[in-house]
Amino acid sequence: MSKLFDLTGKVAVALGGNSTLGSSISKGFAEHGAKVAIVGRKLETAEEVAKEIVAAGGEAKAFQADVSDLDTVEKVAGEIEAWAGGVDILLNAPGMNSTTPFLDLKPEEWDQIMDVNLRGIVFATQIFARRMIENDRKGSIINISSVSSTSPLSKVFTYSASKAAINNVTQFLAKEFAPNGIRVNGIIPGFFPAEQNRKILSEDRVNSIMNHTPMNRFGEPEELQGAAIYLASDKASGFVTGTFVRVDGGFGSMTI
C-alpha cells in the first residue's frame, strides 16, 4: 500500500506553504518523497518550514512570492523550474480572512481578500499549469477550500464567497486540464484554527462550532496530510479529478 502514496521523484510547489495548514501538508509531501518548494509572502517563515523539512531528512527550499502580485509568482515559477526541473504537484493554500460586517465592508477590503483567495489562485494556477503542460508533466493541483464554500459562515462573508468561487474554479479546471493529464481537486477543511486564532474565538463562537461538529473538537493540521497526499499521488488517485475531500469532523453532515 505504501507504493500508492509514494511521491518520490515528484516536485511539489506549496503556495502558502508557510501557513499553518500549508506547512503541515508540505511536510507530509516531503515525508513521502517529494521535493518541496515552500512559497510564502514572508520568506523568513517559508525558510523556517523548509529547514524543518530538511532537518527531518526531506528536500525543500524556500521561495518568496505573493499571489496578489502575479509578477512575483511568474518570477518564482522560473526559479523553481531552475531548481527542480519542473512541477508535478501544485498546492494552493494562501488565504486571507476578515470578520468585517457586511454593511461595513468596503470595496478595498473585498478586493484585497479576493486578490489573495480567488484572483491570485486563479492566475497563479495559470502560471504553473502552463509550465506543467509545456513540460508534459501530468500532475495534480490541489486547492484548499473551506466548509464555508458550501454553506456560508456568519461573520466571514467575503471569505465564504471567495471559497465558493474556488470550488467552481476547481471543477472547471478539472475539465479544462483533463486532456493534459492534470488532475484538479479540492480539500474542504473544517475548523483548524492556529493557536493565535483560537485566542480570538469567543466562547459562544466555539460552542456554536462544536455543536455543529459531531467529533466535538478542532482539527489538527497533520490530519490534512492524508487527504493531500492521496490527491497528490497519481497511483492512489489517478482517476480522481473535479472532486472535494472533506476533512471537517462531520461539520458538513449537520443541518441544525
Tell me briefly what this model is.
With 256 residues, the protein is α/β, with parallel strands linked by helices. The chain has helices spanning 20-31, 43-55, 70-84, 107-134, 157-177, 195-198, 203-211, 225-232, 234-237; strands spanning 11-15, 35-40, 59-64, 89-92, 140-144, 183-189, 244-247.
Question: How would you describe this protein?
Answer:
The chain has 256 residues and is α/β, with parallel strands linked by helices. It has one domain: Rossmann fold (3-Layer(aba) Sandwich), CATH 3.40.50. The chain contains 9 helices and 7 strands, in the order βαβαβαβαβαβααααβ. It has a 7-stranded parallel β-sheet, with helices on both faces.
* CATH class descriptor name: Alpha Beta
Tell me the number of strands: 7
Helix content: 40-55%
Please, what is the CATH homologous superfamily?
Answer: NAD(P)-binding Rossmann-like Domain
Unreliable runs, pLDDT <50, ≥5 residues?
Answer: none
Radius of gyration: 17 Å
Biggest sheet overview? 7 strands, parallel
How much of the sequence is in beta strands? 5-15%
Family: Belongs to the short-chain dehydrogenases/reductases (SDR) family.
GO molecular function: oxidoreductase activity, acting on the CH-OH group of donors, NAD or NADP as acceptor
Protein name: NAD(P)-dependent dehydrogenase (Short-subunit alcohol dehydrogenase family)
Pfam families: adh_short_C2
Q: Which helices and strands, and how do they pair?
A:
Blueprint: E1 11-15, H1 20-31, E2 35-40, H2 43-55, E3 59-64, H3 70-84, E4 89-92, H4 107-134, E5 140-144, H5 157-177, E6 183-189, H6 195-198, H7 203-211, H8 225-232, H9 234-237, E7 244-247
Parallel strand pairs: 1-2, 1-4, 2-3, 4-5, 5-6, 6-7
Helix pairs in contact: 1-2, 1-8, 3-4, 4-5
GO molecular function: oxidoreductase activity, acting on the CH-OH group of donors, NAD or NADP as acceptor
Pfam family, one: adh_short_C2
Organism: Saliterribacillus persicus
